[in-house]
Amino acid sequence: MPPLQRVNSCTDIGFTLRRQFHKDDFRPHQREIIEAALGGHDVYVQAATSFGKSLCFQLPAVIDQGITIVVSPLLSLMINQVEALKAAGIDASSLNSNTSPDERDRIQRDLETGHPRTRLLYVTPELCSGSRFRQRLQLVHRQKELARIAIDEAHCISEWGHDFRKDFKRLSWFRETFPDVPIMCLTATANAQVRQDILKVLRLDATPERIKTFLMSPERGNLHLEIRYTKDEDDNRLSDFLKWIHAVYERRRAEPRQSELAKQRERTENVSGIIYTTSRDECESLSASLRDAGVGARPFHAKLPKDVKEDTLTNWINNEPGYDIIVATTAFGMGIDKDNVRFVVHWRLPKSFEGYYQEVGRAGRDGNASYCFLYYSREDLERVSRMIKSDTKADSNYESRLRSLQALAYYCENINACRHASICKYFGEETIPACDFACDFHKNSDDLEERFVRGLASEEWVSTQAMQGTYDNYAGDY
Ligand SMILES: Nc1ncnc2c1ncn2[C@@H]1O[C@H](COP(=O)(O)OP(=O)(O)OP(=O)(O)O)[C@@H](O)[C@H]1O
After folding, report:
1. ipTM of model over 0.95
2. What are phi and psi of 357, to 5 degrees?
3. Do 437 and 443 touch, CB atoms closer than 8 A?
4. Which residues contact 379 (CB under 8 A, 6 or more apart)?
5. Is the pLDDT assigned to residue 458 strictly greater than 90?
6. What is the CATH number of the domain that holds 305?
7. Would the pLDDT of 295 be above 90?
8. Any idea where the Helicase C-terminal domain is (predicted)?
9. For position 475, what pLDDT does the model report?
10. Bridge partners of residue 325, in order along the sequence
11. Ligand 1 pocket, residues with Cβ under 6 angstroms
12. What is the Cα–Cα distance from 163 to 419, expressed in whole angstroms?
């Protein structure tokens, strides 16, 4: 079947970019992706964190006739995007478990007209499985008003990927029911196997002539990537971090930096950052310790009341005093889009390579240099492995989860390669990026080796401790 030709494909998309999205120019490849979408193709986009993937479906949605359905796994991500679109005067809404009954009624009535005014409707994959919602979309489609399906964070479709969600598998319904409606899928974290799986599940591989694939490098050259080695016996994370952050504050207090900051009305301590921990308790206790040491840190985890979470997020985004650093569990991850995050610290080993990449991807979204370091200990590796092994709920992709963790451990323990090159290799990117002293290996490989040798507990020690049951009680913390 030839790609569906859209009536407005000749529109000046640069004009729409400036008028509706208030941006001066496209970033590299955005124009080609948007043109492919407007040409009626299915589109697969794989690009680095902060590339600007959302614009690739938002701009066509403004130009095309009809509604674009955006499937997104994260409520926070939806809410952020819908608010930004509304602020730009674009008719966008979201429909999920948090939508108020009035708003839900309004959206449903809009769909039932068959000619919805809504340009972009953000929904969860769970909602797409509901029969009432499906009937409403069929009605819209009969009126030729279903413009496109965009599937964000498309790696959630694959059992080989991280964050697998079973309702994503049911999205095959879209191609089966609306064979003429183009589909766009976007992700920052897929390897060749995950990519194939996405195309297969969505049935896009059945019409290879329709699809345009854009594979961009995952490289984030403005992030300085570093591993800091530690061990239970001599756990120096807190003192090491405090030394680092206070040194940053000192540099900002020194002239001429202080005068520059004063001119920009910026506080010395406004060095915006995120520290990822893995347990809620540590999230609370660490942020309290940092506050005791004069650092403006706040906890963020799933169990906090909704209004506290919203307040924390708003104050952090607005650079308010006392809210410079968010100490978060992974509940605070994909999709956070604050431009001036200057550092991301992993207090503990994340559970997957993809999770690590997504989380460091919150830093430096304005393109300026930003610092990312991860405290790695072999004891933590043992704890996370145990947690994955004991997590029976996720046994459908247990092996790929373990493989991803092992790849991350290998990355941390590899002292003979560029961190950026290792990330590219993991995601199957063949071109090795030039690294401008932007990782610990390229900055000082001798120092890296020395820290590695001095910092870690021996493998024998950790496995003896494991056999004696030292880590058994820790699994629940993660
Ligand atoms: N052409 C552009 N000019 C300037 N800013 C842009 C442009 N395109 C996108 N942006 C901005 O870049 C930021 C990142 O975009 P977006 O959130 O879509 O990234 P993403 O590729 O989805 O990243 P992630 O996978 O990390 O969520 C946003 O603040 C967006 O407004």
Report:
1. yes
2. -65, -45
3. yes
4. 231, 232, 457, 462, 465, 471
5. no
6. 3.40.50.300
7. yes
8. 240-406
9. 44
10. 273, 297
11. 23, 26-27, 30, 47, 49-55, 188, 335, 337, 361, 365
12. 23
